[in-house]
TrEMBL record:
Compositional bias (Polar residues): 302-346
Assigned keywords, A-Z: Disulfide bond, Repeat, Signal
Pfam family, one: CUB
Name used for this protein in its record: CUB domain-containing protein
CDD domains per UniProt: CUB (cd00041)
Domain CUB: 53-165, 179-291, 330-442, 455-567
Amino acid sequence: MKRRPSELKRSLFSITIFCSVVFCRVDSTAGWNSSDFQVNSTAAWNSSNFQVCGKILTGNGGIFQSPNFPYNYPDNTRCVWTITVDPGFQVRVDLSEISLEEADDCSFDYILIRDGNNQSAEILAEKCGFSILCPITSTGNEMFIEFKSDGSVTRSGFQATWSAVNSTTALNDTNCQVCRKILTGNGGIFQSPNFPYNYPDNTRCVWTITVDPGFQVRVDFSEFSLEGTDGCSFDYVFIRDGNNQSAEILAEKCGFSILCPITSTGNEMFIEFKSDGSVTRSGFQATWSAVNSTTALNNTNCQDNSTATSTTPSSVDNSTATSTSSSVGCSQTLSGNEGTLQSPNYPSDYPNNARCVWTIETDPGTRVSLNFSAFSVEDGRSCRYDSLVVRDGNSSSSPLLRKLCGQERTVAITASGNVLFLEFRSDRSMTKNGFLAQWSVDNSTATSTPFSVGCSRTLSGNEGSLQSPNYPSDYPNNARCVWTIETDPGTRVSLNFSAFSLEDGRNCRHDSLVVRDGNSSSSPLLRKLCGQERTVAITASGNNLFLEFRSDRSVTKNGFLAQWSVGSSKKNFPEGCQKVISECLSRFWAASFQPVDYGKLARTFFICVRNRCPETAGIPAFDNA
């Protein structure tokens, strides 16, 4: 609806929360008009201004979260939640985990929690990066939470529960302990809180270890005693092959264990320890060190949960293999346009605690392809026990093509070039007879066409379609597909979905389609999709989109069908308008964070826009929710 300034001024007196976006807009029919303002019932989004969100929350409890959670929050976002509970109670907020852009002083993206109802109240907590937090409790019956993101780099954000609690419950929160350390260098020690005495209840600890590039992280647990359960659902230690909680799990441990050394594939490792509200043990102590690949491969003499030292010879052959068409050993560099490789001891069972690496290289200009004539490896969720990883390149950091386990009879795996990297790992228990594989040169090449039914292609043209493998039938397990779309220079490519059905999961951890604003896996993230998503059009800032589809080893759906086309070019704002609007927005925010006088707040915003931005301005309606 459209309103004159006098009507707009009256309507703004009823606002109960802040606006969403202020932006400049060209009216192609009426031109620029200084006397009218456009009030939209649905907020339009413009990434160059702040998206404002938040709510006034009252009652006994509820949930609030960052925009788009569990997907990445947008750039340039400010959200404010004011929570009020009954007098005599306190506000408790449980932010069990947050994932924001990190900075030493939290100057980029952050969440501020204050002990009152406005931004001048005392700060209870200021957090950014990846944090594991204890519950946060106000001293009175009000709490003020502010979330802000800057113009670049976003993460999955946060979800929080809030509740009204009495003083007894609030005091119990002081028993919660959080510990987090970032460890760098060549080695050191970390341990559970209070070790060798019992760790406390309700404890969360995270250690992120980073060693020099070219080395790997090795962790040795000298003592380990946690509350035990079959699913490790009470107290546990997670060890991940990377620097965050979404990295691949190397080990999940609880109970009483004597553990073999655990080694990362790269130069980073993420360790998480958690205890619940009852039953504690003495915990653990561990040493960490930077090791080279030879040292990492020599960890195979260890047997978990045994006080005896294994006398089984190491299964690892550290010699460099000659270039042959057939390989029976472990850890070899293989060259030639065809050949065979197999797991250690095949067709007998492979040993425990094995790690083997093969690098296959065919002639330049060819594409190497891998087929399996036999495959039997211990199964497990996310292939956490024994696995064969196949990567598109010559190192452990190359893009993942497949991660295989179980009784997999996989289709051919083809690299984008002439090199494949394979890594086989087995854990301390249960072995199978492994695998037999053949590599050869794939003479087929993907051509750029306006329609793609396949997987991993470069697509050009101003319109076309693409779909998940086998669509409309179910896509396969352990798939990875990459599409790069390129339209004419000077255009903006836009993607629409006519059908979408993937396995769902928190943070799309199982199956997902990632859409990026550019032509590579490092381009800015636009969306990460899963579940029964029927998303609106996704539009790039230019003429390239990068799509990556991944499925895990279980549960498949019928996937997606998408169409790309050329969207309208981005409208240029009048010179100086962005600066004026930013100033207006800053003044509006300064007014809005004072004790609320809605009349004054409305007048401040109205006068600002009228006096400083005479061009037509789009002013979305206020959110009364």
